[in-house]
Amino acid sequence: MKFRKIILLIALMFLTVTGLFLTQYSIINYLNKLSTEKFEESAEKAIRRTVRFLEEKETLFYASEIVAQQNPDVKDELDSLRDRTHFVSQQDRVDYGHGDSSADREIEIIREKALESQEKLQDIVTQTIYSWKNDAKNADLTKRLDFDEMNLVLQTHMEICGIDEPYEFFIYDQVGRLIYYTPLVQSERRLRKPSFVFEVPLFPADLNAGNACIKVVFPTMKPSMRDGMKYFVPSLILVLFVMIIFVYTTVTISRQRTIGQMKVDFINNMTHEFKTPLASISLAAQMLQDTNVSNSPARIMSLSKIINDESRRLQLLIEKILQVSVYDKQSMKINLTDLSVNQQIEDVCRSFEINISHVGGQLKCELQAQHDIALLDKLHFSNIIYNLLDNAIKYRSADRPLIVYVRTSCNQEGFIQITIEDNGIGISKSDLKHIFDQFFRVHTGDLHDVKGYGIGLAYVKLMVEAHHGTINVVSTPDVGTTFTIELPTL
User: Fold this and answer.
1) The domain made up of 228-325 is a member of CATH 3.30.70.920
2) 376 and 337 in contact (C-beta within 8 Å)?
3) What is the DSSP string of 254-283?
4) In sequence order, what E strands does 400-479 have?
5) d(Cα 262, Cα 254) in Å, to the nearest integer?
6) I want to staple 174 with a disulfide (CB 3.0 to 4.6 A). Which of 210, 220, 339, 364 is the partner?
7) Predicted local confidence at residue 342, as pLDDT
8) Which pLDDT score, from 0 to 100, does residue 341 have?
9) CATH says 334-488 is which class?
10) What end-to-end distance do the CA atoms of the chain give, in Å?
């Protein structure tokens, strides 16, 4: 995929996720607003119903008092009923299937007496209003209210309106003085913090009530904690999940694009590398067919050496391709046998020493490990050491002779440690974390004479892990590089 398409995909995905998030936020904000409005409406309805009950109860008291005075025959019954009249909670109404029988009977008596004649009804209403206003004018508010019953009434109406949030309430008298607050409240300071405070006048039909009111607060209630939060959290999780998938997909596409480009470069380089030895072998073969050459043993020896060297070069190129093919773990098969690590390293160093000598370097082996028997695949283990030594030659410094140390030791019981140290150009910190990536090549600055395909160290790491070992690298630019391999021993 082209880089422009990747950028376009990232931009479109970003806009899509942003639009989704903003849409979800808008919906949830709207739900919060509706939920808050519904809660405020329900809370105020419950409080007003409570206040209305207080008015109705007080009105019933004065009406029954007037009827009792005008009808001595029902006075005793009304007095008894007024003493037993109380508020019936919603739960009691459900459990027993009726309301307050005392209040119901009292209302029935008043209705019967009031409806005997129109004049009598008007007289009862007039006297009730007069007595109520006259007594309420100078009455203490604490004597007109039963705070415990008021709490029960308010709680019941809250339940009826579907509100289960904890609340507190405050009662103020005619001059605005606090005369009561719920037992759990320590002071009036709780009114300063809550987001939801409802104030409803007490006895609104009484002109002498002044500033008497009830304030109800919900201390734990927050606007953002309403029903919208039930949808916001899952939506946020889904948006984050989509973002994670998008980032992972983008990184994967970018990585695959890089690997794909590296593979193309690798194939192009390999094609070019194959052409040179094949052309040399073909030319040497044609010259061997010449009768003049066939009569010269020296020329034959020279051409044979060319064919031999180029064949070896082809063999190395083929091994590189095979390393790429076995890089896939699923297709990789290794045959582990009991072998001496020291012996295998010594064999590789002996055959490789001439290569280091050819560039004017030295190879020093210090194989001091005592317990060096491990499960090894002879071919792949040899390739591990060969690749590391080959890299030491490729990335040697031009300012000093190359020195390579190969050491073995048993610093930890059950493991053998293999160290390959050189005094080459070193590796920068930015490259160090990528050197085991497939097709990655270390930058060599202005040097362009280092040939490679970026698969050697990736293959080394894969093979070390296939031997149940680990590999680490420490490097300092212009000082050198040290590879450390640890393998389990028998």
Assistant:
1) no
2) yes
3) HHHHHHHHHHHHHHHHHHHHHHHHHHHHHH
4) 403-409, 415-422, 470-476
5) 12
6) 210
7) 93
8) 94
9) alpha beta
10) 49
Joined tokens for residue 356: 């280091």
| Closest to 186 in 3D by CA, of 212, 168, 164 | 168
The structure tokens listed for 279 are: 């052309």
Rounded to whole angstroms, the Cα distance separating 108 from 92 reads 21
Q: In the predicted model, what is the mean pLDDT of residues 136-149?
A: 73
Give the strand pairing for 362-367 and 403-409.
Answer: parallel
Q: Is residue 172 a contact partner of residue 215, using CB atoms and an 8 Å limit?
A: yes
Q: Do 235 and 28 touch, CB atoms closer than 8 A?
A: yes
- What are the residues facing 365 on neighbouring strands? 406
Asked if 28 contacts 231 with a C-beta cutoff of 8 angstroms, the reply is: yes
Residues 6 or more apart whose CB falls under 8 angstroms from that of 300 comprise 288, 293, 294
Is residue 204's pLDDT more than 60? yes
Q: Is-contact 364 406, C-beta < 8 A?
A: yes
Half-sphere exposure of 234 (CA within 13 A, CB side): 4
8 Å CB contact between 277 and 283: no
pTM, full prediction: 0.45
Q: What residues does each domain of the chain span? A: 3-225, 228-325, 334-488
- Segment among 115-119, 400-404, 460-464 with least mean pLDDT: 115-119
Cα-to-chain-centroid distance, residue 276: 54
Report the C-alpha gap between 349 and 358 in whole angstroms: 14
